[in-house]
Specification:
Blueprint lengths: L1 E5 L6 H14 L7 E3 L11 E4 L9 E5 L5 H6 L2 H7 L2 E5 L7
């Protein structure tokens, strides 16, 4: 299974939120928030981070590969817990407000 993610290299917080909003809208999904995790922290167990630019709109797109599809497999190797523990700063639930 692949997890679609957005690297925020050289992107402002506003640009990162806009990309997330655009992807959510395209997929008819809800954007719940943003968390920052360094790519090297996602290279655990069976996981790897593979750049996968979606041009022209999202040059920072990447996929986290090797994520188990079955929930019981995810929990058995504690990948979700390790990723959550690697979040830098706080989980951000709303985009920044202007001014």
């Amino acid at each position: 299974m692949e997890l679609s993610v957005n690297r925020h290299r050289e992107a402002t917080p506003e640009e990162t939120w806009q990309v997330g909003s655009d992807v959510a809208k395209q997929r008819s999904k809800t954007l719940f928030g943003l968390a920052n995790i360094r790519a090297n922290k996602c290279r655990i167990e069976t996981l790897n981070v593979i750049p996968d630019p979606v041009l022209p709109g999202n040059p920072n797109h990447a996929n986290i590969t090797g994520y188990p599809a079955a929930k019981e497999d995810q929990m058995a190797i504690a990948i979700a817990t390790e990723l959550a523990a690697s979040i830098e700063g706080n989980w951000i639930t709303h985009p920044p407000k202007d001014g």
